[in-house]
Amino acid sequence: MTPYSSFLFFIILGILLLPTMILGIMGKHLRYYNVFVSIAVLALIFSGGDEGFYSLVLFTVLQLILIKGYISYRQKKNSSLVFYLMSFLSILPLILSKILPFLAVDNWASFLGISYLTFRAVQIIIETRDGLIKQQLSIYQLVNFMLFYPTISSGPIDRFRRFQKDEEKRWAPEEYKELLYKGINKIFLGFLYKFIIGYAINTYFIMNLEHIADGRFSYHLLYMYSYSLYLFFDFAGYTAFAVGVSYIMGIRSPENFNMPFISRNIKDFWNRWHMSLSFWFRDYVFMRFVFLMKKKKWIQNKMLVSNLGYILLFLLMGVWHGLAIQYIVYGAYHALMMTAFNFFETWNKKHKRWPTGNIMTIVSIVITFHVVCFGFYLFSGRPFQ
Amino acid sequence: MDFKEKVLQVIAEVCEDDVVKEENNLDIFEAGLLDSFATVELIVQFEEQLGINVPITEFDRDTWNTPNAIIDRLNELK
C-alpha cells in the first residue's frame, strides 16, 4: 500500500496512532509503543508485493554492516580510500536500481523509497568520517532512523543527529500537545493540497487541456503552468502528511517547502524548493567539493570552483531522479541557470546595474517563476514525447 | 588582537563587509552576507588563520548564524 494514497491508509494510521497521542498527552515515553506502530505500518506498506520487501531487507542489512563496520574502523584509522569505498558501496544499491531497467533484467535492487533511504545511510558514513559520530550506533538506532515510516517513501530526508535528539526526548505533556496540534494541522493542510487542489488541477484542468487550449503553443504553455502548480501541491501535500505524522510520533522532521513560487532568483528557489534534498546536496556534495578544491588548491579561480560545484550538484540531482532523458535535461538546465546566475550576481555586485525596489522585486519573482516553471515542464517529460 | 577580534576579522574578510564587526548579533545568512560557497571559504580561513578545524557537516546554519554564535562555537571547538 502506497503511504498517504488512500483513505484506508489514513484510517488505519489514525487508529494505530491513538495510543501514541494518549501516551504523549500523559507525558509518557513514546518509544516503545512507536516501535510497534512502525512495524505495523511498514508491514502494511510493504506487504503488497510490488514494493520490494526483500530488497528493502537486503538493503537495510547491507547498510547496517557498512555503517557499523565503518564506525569501528574510524575509531582506529581514517584513510580517505576506505571512506570513498564505503560511501560507494552504500550508494551501490541505488546505482543498481537505476541501471538495471536499462539492462532489460528484473529490477530486483529497487524498492519503495530507495532513493531517500540511501541518502539517510550515506549521510551517517560522511558524518562518521568528519568525526561527528564517534560512538558505535546500535542496530535499533540505525533501523529506527533509516526505516522511519512517516518519511520512508519520498522524504523529507532527515539528519541522523537531529533525528536522534527528538527520538531520545521525553516530551512534557504541554510540549507534546503543541506537537500534536501542529501535526494534525499539517495533515489537514496535506488533504487540502494533495486531495483537493492538486487533484482538481490534474483532473479538471490538465486532463481536459486538449479542449481548453486552442493551439499547440497554448497547450504547452498552459501545461507548463498547470503541471508546475500540480507538482507543488501534490508534493507539498505529501510532505505535509509525512511531517505531520512525524510530529505525532514525536519527531520534528524537516520541512521541504517554503513558498517556492515567491523566490527572487534561482539560488533563492533552491533554498525554498525540496529543501531537505537540496540542502543534502549542498552540505554533502557542493560544500565538500568546494572545500576539497580549496584545501588541495587544485583550482584557484573562485568562479570556476563554484560553477563546477553547481554543475556537479545539479547533474547528480538530475540522475538521482532517474536516468530518463527528462531528468538529465532537468539537471543540466538547473546547472546552467545556477552558473548563469552566479556570473550575473558577481557582475552585479560590482556594477550594481540591477535596480532595487518593490517593482524590481516583483519583476525578479515573475522572471524566476517562469525559469522554474520551464524547468518543471522539462521535468514532466512532456517535451520529449 | 584577542580571539574575538581575530574571528570577527576573518568573518568580515569573507563576507566582504565590516558590518559584522559592529553588529555581532546579525544573522549573516538572512542578511545575504554568506552563502554556501562563502561558508566553505570561512571554514578554510578558520583552519588556516586560527588553526581550528570545523567539519563542514558541523556548520549548521541554525547554530552558526551570527558573529557571536560563531565565536561561541569556535570557543567550544578550540
TrEMBL record, chain A:
What is the protein's major site of localization? membrane
Q: Name one Pfam family in it.
A: MBOAT
**What domain of life does the native source organism fall in?**
Bacteria
Q: Which InterPro entries match?
A: Ac/AlaTfrase_AlgI/DltB (IPR024194), DltB (IPR024024), MB_O-acyltransferase (IPR051085), MBOAT_fam (IPR004299)
Q: Which UniProt keywords apply?
A: Acyltransferase, Cell membrane, Membrane, Transferase, Transmembrane, Transmembrane helix
Q: Provide the top EC class.
A: transferase
Membrane topology according to the record:
Multi-pass membrane protein
Q: Where are the transmembrane segments?
A: 6-25, 32-47, 53-71, 83-102, 187-206, 227-249, 269-291, 303-321, 327-347, 359-379
Pathway where this protein functions: Cell wall biogenesis; lipoteichoic acid biosynthesis
* EC number of this enzyme: 2.3.1.-
Q: Where in the cell is it found?
A: Cell membrane
Protein function: O-acyltransferase that catalyzes D-alanylation of both teichoic acid and lipoteichoic acid (LTA). D-alanylation of LTA plays an important role in modulating the properties of the cell wall in Gram-positive bacteria, influencing the net charge of the cell wall. Catalyzes D-alanylation from DltC carrier protein.
Family according to the record: Belongs to the membrane-bound acyltransferase family.
Q: Fetch the NCBIfam families from UniProt.
A: LTA_dltB
What protein name applies here? Teichoic acid D-alanyltransferase
Write down the species: Terribacillus saccharophilus
Provide the taxonomic classification. Answer: Bacteria, Bacillati, Bacillota, Bacilli, Bacillales
The gene it comes from is dltB
From TrEMBL, chain B:
Lipid biosynthesis listed as a keyword: no
The pathway this protein participates in, as annotated, is:
Cell wall biogenesis; lipoteichoic acid biosynthesis
Record-annotated Carrier domain positions: 1-78
Q: Where in the cell is it found?
A: Cytoplasm
- Segments spanning the bilayer are none
Domain of life of the organism in this record? Bacteria
Modification sites for O-(pantetheine 4'-phosphoryl)serine: 36
The record's listing under InterPro entries reads: ACP-like_sf, DltC, PP-bd_ACP
Single GO molecular-function term? ligase activity
- Give the principal location in a single coarse category: cytoplasm
UniProt keywords, alphabetically: Cell wall biogenesis/degradation, Cytoplasm, Ligase, Phosphopantetheine, Phosphoprotein
Question: What function does the entry list?
Answer: Carrier protein involved in the D-alanylation of lipoteichoic acid (LTA). The loading of thioester-linked D-alanine onto DltC is catalyzed by D-alanine--D-alanyl carrier protein ligase DltA. The DltC-carried D-alanyl group is further transferred to cell membrane phosphatidylglycerol (PG) by forming an ester bond, probably catalyzed by DltD. D-alanylation of LTA plays an important role in modulating the properties of the cell wall in Gram-positive bacteria, influencing the net charge of the cell wall.
Listed NCBIfam families? dltC (TIGR01688), PRK05087.1 (NF003464)
Give the family, as the similarity comment puts it.
Belongs to the DltC family.
UniProt name for this protein: D-alanyl carrier protein
